């Protein structure tokens, strides 16, 4: 069985801008965090209906992604 995944929910405005996203480091805007995740874990993203989407990322990987996103 694979490692437990954590779901990061994303909500978009009608113009496509990210307005809410889970697990976001305080130093980044919602759009910056979405962009970082899109580049670093693109295969973990799933688009949903109604201006929503989710990243399904391994639980242990979240803190590493948060730390490296703020460091760059």
Sheet-strand content, in percent, reads: 25-35%
Low-confidence stretches are none
The major β-sheet equals:
4 strands, antiparallel
Structural class: alpha+beta
Helix percent band: 25-40%
- The Rg value, from CA coordinates, equals 12 Å
Task: Give the termini separation.
Answer: 33 Å
The rough form would be described as globular
Tally of individual helices: 2
In which order are the strands of the major sheet placed?
2-1-4-3
Return the string of H and E elements: EEHEEH
pLDDT averaged over residues: 93
- Number of discrete domains: 1
Strand elements, count = 4
Please give a structural write-up.
- By secondary structure, this protein is an alpha+beta fold.
- The protein has one domain (5-71).
- Helices cover 33% and strands 32% of the residues.
- It has helices at 30-40, 59-71, and strands spanning 5-12, 18-21, 45-48, 52-58.
- It has a four-stranded antiparallel sheet with strand order 2-1-4-3.
- β1 and β2 form a beta hairpin.
- 15% of the residues are buried.
